[in-house]
Structures are given as structure tokens and as C-alpha cells.
Design a protein that fits this description.
single chain, about 130 residues, mainly beta, two-stranded antiparallel sheet
Length: about 130
């Protein structure tokens, strides 16, 4: 398949992380909190999300370098250049990111979470229950 794929965000992340230097390298070392605003067309999809659950959030890293095919894992040059498909680097041809976050609060159109590792304003593509 060589066609285009069109993705429509279901929401957007709001948090205090404004520049890349503030963002934790991965969700599993983050205690940063934020709010996932769910767009009105998708409010029904929030049914059954509860505080205390862990959810998987798929983001579109809209400010990532999409031309990078090799990176130094976690910025560690001693590890050598590695193909992005073998890393969790945000720099990749399609900057889809995945994070597991803890649900702190749920309100209509908003999910407050802990474990944020994305910039403020990052589009949210999907949310899944962690199994």
C-alpha cells in the first residue's frame, strides 16, 4: 500500500511541559501530571474510564524530526547510532508515540493523568485500556 493514511485526533494533551528539555525521556520515569482534553465528538468513548486505572495513550508528536532514521538511544552517544525502529525515539518517519499513564480524575471531556512524557498541545490519536 502506498496511499495516504488520514488520522483524526480525538483530543489534545494539556500540561506544563513547554519545551523538549523539560520532557521526561519515558513515561515510566515521569511523575508529571496533565489533562487529556477529549473532543466533544468522542466524549462517549470515555465511558468506563475510572481513576486508578492505567491507560495507553497514542500521541502524534507533531513537532518531532520526521527525517531522522538513526538516533543515539536516549541521547547516549556511547551506544552508537541505532535505527529508529529499534528505539522509542520521538524522531521517526511517523511520530506516533505510546505512553502508559495513570488516571487520576475523570470529568466530562477531560482525563487527568500522571506519567506524562509529551509536550503541551500534543495531539492525542487514541486511548486504550491497559491489559
Amino acid at each position: 500500500m502506498n496511499g495516504n493514511i488520514i488520522l483524526t485526533p480525538v483530543g489534545v494533551l494539556h500540561c506544563g511541559l513547554r519545551n523538549r528539555s523539560q520532557v521526561p525521556r519515558n513515561y515510566d520515569i515521569s511523575d508529571v501530571t496533565g489533562d487529556i482534553e477529549i473532543f466533544p465528538d468522542y466524549h462517549e468513548a470515555m465511558a468506563d474510564i475510572k481513576p486508578g486505572q492505567e491507560i495507553v495513550v497514542l500521541y502524534w508528536f507533531d513537532r518531532a524530526d520526521r527525517s531522522a532514521l538513526k538516533v543515539y538511544p536516549r541521547g547516549d552517544r556511547s551506544r552508537g547510532l541505532t535505527g529508529v525502529f529499534s528505539t522509542r525515539s520521538p524522531m521517526r518517519p511517523n511520530p506516533i508515540a505510546i505512553s502508559e499513564v495513570e488516571v487520576l480524575e475523570v470529568e466530562p471531556g477531560r482525563i487527568k493523568v500522571k506519567g506524562v512524557d509529551a509536550l503541551d498541545g500534543t495531539p492525542v490519536l487514541d486511548i486504550k485500556k491497559k491489559v
